[in-house]
Q: What sequence folds into this?
C-alpha cells in the first residue's frame, strides 16, 4: 500500500521533547515501513524518518503548504492520513482520513478519526472512527524498583491541574517532581511557584533519557487533568514504564484505564490515599502488559491498516469534482505551463 502521512508544521517528526501528535506520526510511519508499505511523509523541516520519502515544508503559510503537498504527492497514492487538517478540508480525489489528536475537528471532513471513543461520542457526535494512540514499548525504560517521589509530566497550564498534583503531594507527604513546558507564566507564578522548595521541584521540559528515567523511577505519576482529556499519552507512557498513574475521570482517562480501575480517582484526597497505600495498586509487570496489549505502536498500526482497507475497499470516500484541492492543482498546473489565471 502507498500511504501519505501529513504531519503539522509545528514540531519535527520525531519530536525531541514534547510533541504527542508528531510522536504518533513517527511511530505509525516507522511501523508501516517495517511492514513493507511505501510511506510519503510531509512534515516540518528537521524531520527524519525511514519513509520512502520525507518532504519538508518550505513555508509557514498553510495555503503554501497545501500547494507544496499537491505538487509533491505521488499520483498513485492509495490513501492519505491527514494529522494536520489542511488536506482533508481540501477534499483531494484520493481516499483521505482526518485524525484529530485533540477534542474535535472544526471543519466537516469526509472521514474523521478520534483518539478515543469518548471524544468520538462527545465532540464527533458519533460520526467517524476512534483509534487509540500507540507507543513503541522499547522506547520506555521498565523498572520494578521505584524511588519515593511523585511525578507530574505535562504542560504547565490550568487545565492539566498541576496545582492539584501539588495538593496531592502535600496531603500524602511525598516529594513531587514537576516536569513539562511552561505555557502559562501567570498560572505558574500564582499556583505553582509559591510551593516550590525541597519537596516540590520544577525541573523544566524533559525528553529522551531524562524523561524515561523520571517515569521509570517514580513511585506514582499524577495525571490531574481537569478538562476533557482526549486520550492522555502520559497514562500509557507511565504504565509502559511499570509505574502506576493516578488520574481523574475526565475525558478519555477512564477509557484508557478501563482495565485498571484502581488507578481512577474522584478527589485529591482519594488520590493522596492511593499514594499512601501504593502497594494496593497494580504491580509494575501487570501495568507493562496492559499497556503493550492495548496501546503499542503495533496495535495502533494494525487498527489504522484495518481502517485504510475499509475506506478503500468499501469506497467510503466520495470523490468530488469542484474542490479546493482540484482548483489549487489546476492553478498550479497553469502556472507551470505559463498560462494566465
A:
Amino acid at each position: 500500500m502507498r500511504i501519505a502521512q501529513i504531519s503539522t508544521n509545528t514540531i519535527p517528526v520525531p519530536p525531541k521533547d514534547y510533541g504527542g501528535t508528531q510522536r504518533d506520526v513517527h511511530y505509525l510511519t516507522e511501523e508501516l515501513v517495517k511492514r513493507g508499505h511505501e510511506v510519503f511523509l510531509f512534515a516540518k523541516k528537521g524531520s527524519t524518518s525511514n519513509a520512502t520519502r520525507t518532504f519538508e515544508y518550505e513555508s509557514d503559510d498553510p495555503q503554501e503548504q497545501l500547494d507544496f503537498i499537491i505538487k509533491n504527492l505521488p499520483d498513485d497514492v492509495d490513501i492519505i492520513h491527514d494529522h494536520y487538517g489542511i488536506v482533508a478540508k481540501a477534499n483531494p480525489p484520493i481516499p483521505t482520513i482526518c485524525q484529530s489528536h485533540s477534542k474535535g475537528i472544526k471543519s466537516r471532513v469526509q472521514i474523521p478519526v478520534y483518539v478515543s471513543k469518548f471524544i468520538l461520542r462527545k465532540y464527533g457526535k458519533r460520526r467517524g472512527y476512534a483509534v487509540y494512540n500507540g507507543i513503541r514499548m522499547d522506547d520506555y525504560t521498565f523498572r520494578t524498583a521505584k524511588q519515593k517521589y511523585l511525578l507530574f509530566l505535562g504542560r504547565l497550564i490550568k487545565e492539566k491541574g498541576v496545582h492539584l498534583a501539588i495538593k496531592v503531594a502535600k496531603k500524602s507527604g511525598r516529594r513531587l517532581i514537576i516536569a513539562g513546558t511552561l505555557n502559562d507564566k501567570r498560572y505558574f507564578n500564582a499556583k505553582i511557584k509559591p510551593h516550590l522548595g525541597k519537596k516540590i521541584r520544577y525541573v523544566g521540559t524533559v525528553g529522551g533519557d531524562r524523561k524515561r528515567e523520571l517515569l521509570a523511577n517514580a513511585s506514582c505519576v499524577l495525571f490531574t487533568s481537569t478538562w476533557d482529556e482526549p486520550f492522555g499519552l502520559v497514562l500509557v507512557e507511565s504504565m509502559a514504564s511499570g509505574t502506576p498513574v493516578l488520574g481523574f475521570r475526565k475525558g478519555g482517562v477512564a477509557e484508557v484505564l478501563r482495565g485498571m480501575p484502581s488507578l481512577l480517582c474522584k478527589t485529591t484526597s482519594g488520590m493522596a490515599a492511593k499514594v499512601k497505600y501504593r502497594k494496593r495498586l497494580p504491580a509494575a509487570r501487570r501495568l507493562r502488559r496492559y499497556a503493550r496489549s492495548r496501546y503499542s505502536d503495533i496495535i495502533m498500526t494494525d487498527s489504522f491498516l484495518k481502517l485504510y482497507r475499509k475506506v478503500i475497499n468499501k469506497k467510503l470516500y466520495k470523490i468530488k469534482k469542484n474542490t479546493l484541492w482540484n482548483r489549487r492543482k489546476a492553478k498550479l498546473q497553469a502556472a507551470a505551463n505559463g498560462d494566465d489565471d
About this structure: The two ends are 36 Å apart (CA to CA). Residues 297-313 form the longest helix (17 residues). The mean pLDDT is 94.
